[in-house]
Amino acid sequence: MPPPAGSPPPHPPPDGGWGWVVVGAAFISIGFSYAFPKAVTVFFKEIQLIFNTTYSEIAWISSTMLAVMYAGGPISSVLVNKYGSRPVVMVGGLLCCLGMVTASFSTSVIELYITMGFICGLGLAFNLQPALTILGKYFYKKRPMASGLAMAGSPVFLSTLAPFNQYLFNTYGWKGSFLILGGLLLNSCVAGSLMRPVGPKLTTKKSKQKAGEKVTDPGMKKRHRKKSICTKIDKYLDFSLFKHRGFLIYLSGNVIMFLGFFAPIIFLAPYAKDKGIDEYSAAFLLSVMAFVDMFARPTVGFIANSKFIRPRIQYFFSFAILFNGVCHLLCPLAEDYTSLVVYAVFFGLGFGSVSSILFESLMDLVGAQRFSSAVGLVTVVECCPVLLGPPLAGKLVDETGQYKYMYVACGAIVVLASVWLLIGNAINYRLLAKEKLKETTKKTHTPESQESESLKPSKSPDVSVKSQTAKGSGVNPSERETNI
Fold first, then answer.
1. How many helices (H) and strands (E) does the chain have?
2. What is the band of 9 on the pLDDT scale with cuts at 50, 70, 90?
3. Which residues contact 296 (CB under 8 A, 6 or more apart)?
4. Which of 147, 183, 120, 164 is nearest to 27 (CA)?
5. Cα angle 86, 90, 96; round to 5
6. Is the pTM for the entire model greater than 0.85?
7. Residue 199 backbone class (left: φ over 0; alpha: ψ -120 to 50; beta: rest)
8. How high is the pLDDT of residue 179?
């Protein structure tokens, strides 16, 4: 039976030392994974003109990259559980480089779907999950703080990669820029090399079966093969998590939330332009949001690490989502540029708060030992709402002709997710308390505990007299006498 999720692991992590170097490496890996699909949109206008395609067809490049990054979670989980984080991240960096270099030679949008969307997206999947997993190996007491610092890589990279990509495009064009970005993504290999394994080495037991012994029964052989395949799958990808109550609450809440989570970012600049604001000022709103997000993530990580928040971090996660949803509901009230800047500030605060503890709350539920499998299963399920959310929001804008209804719809979805998680976590905490009480009561009433109590020396002289009398008469002392 695995240790409880909230308890320290059997081999306590260092909670510092080389772990802070690993946090820096995770900062790079997570930064590339989340920021790169958004930052490459700088090149889309030029590619659209060259290949004579619609904006919708070009937008599928980023959507495919994000979808593959999320869908590749289980593959990444299996590889991390088998080989560790270091080699997986290094392979991910090589795949990202290969995808961008081959994309520079593309002659059609279909080729860009394969190179940038699939190959580079799979490389980003190999960057994201191992970086999240190894933080749980190096930290326990300071884990929320470490997660907040590592997750800050996303806004930092987004705010730097976007202008850097614009500079590359103006200087070298999109093909030369893709070659340079391919080389830049090789820094993920450097980050992966810093993710040194920690903890005791796993030893594999050799089979005791002799070479001469063979299974003669074909049916038995087939059953043995099936059993070994199921054992291997369960070893590297823990499907028993779908029986875990807290995991199911977290997963269902996130599926609802991600339907309305990313659309407000994508449509923020177009919404500002629709209000009559110029292009540069509209783009500046994203910079304001990213700047606030950059500081919100480590700050919220420090807050979540406090002794008041850490024991009930699931509630804190629910309230962060609620704050985010309320911001979107109030967005239509912003009529001028100043009010939109205020919205961008609060949006960055809410977005950073959720992102900072998004995976920490999952690790709190399932524990560091099962986190690798959990995040792989979560990302593959979340792939659908991440892919469908922005197009559905765009469809709502097309139908109504106004952005405010889209923001209200996204806000309502996010608020619904927060209420769902709040109620679900409250029920889960109550049931866990009852189960713990039942387990302790059961332990105190077992025959072994009663026997150990009877063997303890009595502190009261009356009890010793009674026990001696019982021994002398050949009768065992009663439970009441033993417990006095």
1. 22, 0
2. low
3. 348, 349, 351, 352, 353, 356
4. 147
5. 145
6. no
7. left
8. 93
